[in-house]
Design brief:
Blueprint lengths: L1 E6 L7 H11 L7 E6 L30 H6 L2 E7 L7 H8 L2 H9 L10 E8 L8 H12 L4 E9 L11 H15 L10 H8 L8
Parallel strand pairs: 1-2, 1-3, 3-4, 4-5
Helix pairs in contact: 1-6
């Protein structure tokens, strides 16, 4: 199995990066091969709505995301680690999500055969505010993005009240959840991918609430 981890924060060694790396540190890579991509280190554009992908479902923009597209389609798990900016997600992640337009065109306009892999989506998200619906926009957007590749959102780990750089280290309970997720995925079997999202969320300790 393969896991693609996307880090969306522009800040180096910030809270979401510590959160993601804590998860990855307990993931045994014998069963799941992992790759970690930091969006702020890539040179790529958001969708420019040119319609070029409507010819064959391929984005005509040639940048660093060109090599990421096939990795997305091979992933069994797509994990996104991100902070919340103004009740939404950072512009790097929004630009990344927009580039799934080519997948949307393939599925809904060109009626192309579905991808062989149907990735399970997981969020690792942090918010400075303690608002009730601070993660709602992120969850909703990620669900629609996953739909373009026939993927399925199976939940996430969401932490509130974390803002200043390194502040997550004062929240060991959140880091323990990230470690536990890595440990549980390490014993995950490919046959388990057929389980319902509710079963997967329960096994992995994920929050599946649409407004976590």
């Amino acid at each position: 199995m393969q896991l693609l981890a996307i880090h969306a924060s522009p800040r180096n060694q910030g809270n979401s990066e510590i959160f993601l790396d804590t998860f990855l540190s307990t993931l045994t890579h014998q069963k799941i091969k992992t790759e970690r991509i930091k969006l702020a280190e890539l040179n790529f554009s958001p969708c420019v709505e040119c319609g070029g992908c409507e010819k064959d479902g391929t984005c005509i923009l040639k940048d660093d995301l060109t090599e990421v597209y096939p990795k997305i389609l091979k992933a069994n798990f797509l994990v996104v680690a991100t902070p919340i900016f103004f009740y939404s997600h950072p512009s790097f992640l929004q630009a990344f999500f927009e580039r799934f337009q080519a997948f949307w065109v393939s599925k809904y306009l060109l009626k192309a055969p579905p991808p062989s892999q149907k990735p399970k989506g997981i969020l690792l998200a942090l918010g400075a505010t303690k608002g009730k619906k601070v993660f709602e926009c992120l969850v909703r957007s990620f669900k629609y993005v996953l739909d373009t590749i026939d993927g399925e959102y199976i939940g996430g780990i969401f932490l509130r009240g974390i803002d200043k750089k390194g502040e997550i280290l004062k929240h060991p309970e959140g880091l323990e959840k990230a470690k536990a997720l890595g440990e549980k995925l390490s014993i995950f079997e490919k046959k388990d991918l057929t389980k319902s999202k509710e079963e997967l969320a329960q096994f992995l300790g994920l929050n599946l609430d649409p407004t976590p």
